[in-house]
Design a protein that fits this description.
171 residues, alpha+beta, four-stranded mixed β-sheet, two-stranded antiparallel ribbon
Length: 171
Amino acid sequence: MESVSPNLTSAIVTLVIGPDQRLFAAHEDVLCHSPFFAAALRGQFFESNSRRINLPDEEAEIFSCVLEYLYKGDYYPRLMHDKKRNTWMLEGAADEDPNSKLGGRGSVEPTIFHSGIGDVILRDTAVYCAAERYGLEELKRLSLRKQGLHRDRGWHHPPQCSVRVREYARQ
């Protein structure tokens, strides 16, 4: 994502996410970094009177990652560069090494139950699918990189999930 600071003076848009209708708020200019939201804000998905976008099939935890990415250029757990070893790791993975100074904000749970699929999948796989839907190419690359780091640590999802995730991403 570009290293341009978001315009935090633009209008606030309310996003209604998932079957539980969790509410999120975001600046219109930040959302417009996504071709999907730029079109939605100009089109039929947008309720102009209430400045609302409804996404009933989205997972709140995944949408939270997308929104964090749009504001910060990354999502938790962030990618951390270990200059000493010249390797990349996920924030929080450093907590397993008591000598590490990278630290994190708690445990990193690599999987989620995805209600649209009805199974447990890698969280980064679901983020990838959301990035595909919202037209965020850099987020797709970031989620793939993080997914690879999870696999390096021995976390896998069942192969049948991959097929269902691809089907879900096409919706």
